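This section describes the prediction task in plain terms. A model, or a person checking by hand, is given the sequence of a single protein chain and must write out its three-dimensional structure as a string of tokens. No templates, partner chains or ligands are provided. The sample shown here is typical of the held-out split.
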Amino acid sequence: MKTRNPLLGGIIAAVMIGFGSWRLYAHYIVGEEMPTWRLILTFAIVAYGLVVAYNVLIKKNAE
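The expected answer:
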């Protein structure tokens, strides 16, 4: 059975959440125009980052 590295998962989650949040900030606060497909992709990146972070935290607490 293959196990995942929780440190690497946490770093990836932080990068995904940070990048997605930066893009959403640029669109909604700064007013930068962004195509709809990029907005959808940005929301998906943030959501996936949150899921990865949740899984890392749950696995860490279970140990």
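For orientation: The chain has two helices and no strands.
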